[in-house]
Amino acid sequence: MSHHKLEVRAMHFSYPDGHKAIKNISFTIYHGESVGIIGANGAGKSTLLMLLMGVLFPDGGEVLVGDVHVTKKTLPMIRQRLGMVFQDPDDQLFMTTVYDDVAFGPRNYKLDEKEVESRVTKALELVGISHLKDRAPFKLSGGEKRAAAIASVLSMHPDVLIMDEPTSGLDPQSRRRVIGLLNSFEHTKIITSHDLDMVFETCKRIIVIKEGEIAADGFTPDILSNEGLLDGCGLEVPFSLRKCPVCGASKG
């Protein structure tokens, strides 16, 4: 099958209490795109990610990865194609060593140990933490945990990386390393975050969600410099695009 796009068609979803979290959302993300999904708290971003990953299933509409519909039957195949890094790395790291955490996915798919070792080694090298492979995850710093969580997804060789708040809780240096890491990947990337400066640096396209609907979809500079749009969606222009408070000049 083709994995060159991820498509959402006329998707609806309501929680059991009747709350309509997603309302008639449609979009297509093509191979190699880096897309930020932004919105205020409660806009529906996390629900949307869970629908993309098959953790939840829509009441109406559909999600396709390539030509394959996301259903309970196709989930094993879909989970190999879509890799998600959770907001809290502690939700993703549970083994006794970093190596075993990164190896968990490939081993779960019954790959031989030589292939597992190759995948783990490459994933750890890619995120720059080969020296931490024998460390216990709970002893790592926040930035190191984030890198280990990303490596655990990369070892599965996904076509699409889905990241929920990848810079949340990081100190400035760790945040900068994660941004550099994201920009180094050639994968298709879907990133949700309130860190709009990070989104500005890592995503070429942005989808804005407001109350479960798409409020805007376009090029990152156009979206993030639109103060009226962002204000109406409970967001603010990122610092990197604001005018100087002293002289009023725009930043380069």
Fold and architecture overview:
Helix content is 34%, strand content 24%. The protein is an alpha/beta fold. The chain has a domain at 5-86 and 158-241: P-loop containing nucleotide triphosphate hydrolases (Rossmann fold), CATH 3.40.50.300. The chain has a six-stranded mixed beta sheet, sandwiched between helices. The chain has a four-stranded antiparallel beta sheet with strand order 2-1-4-5, covered by helices on one side. A hairpin with a 5-residue loop joins strand 1 and strand 2. Helix 3 (98-108) packs across helix 4, helix 4 packs across helix 5 (142-154) and helix 5 packs parallel to helix 6 (172-184). The longest helix is centred in the middle third of the chain and has 15 residues, at 113-127.
User: CATH homologous superfamily of the domain at 5-86 and 158-241, by name?
Assistant: P-loop containing nucleotide triphosphate hydrolases
- The average pLDDT is 91
Q: What is the 3D form?
A: globular
Uncertain stretches of 5 or more adjacent residues:
none
Spatially, the strands of the biggest sheet line up as 6-7-8-3-9-10
Output the structural class: alpha/beta
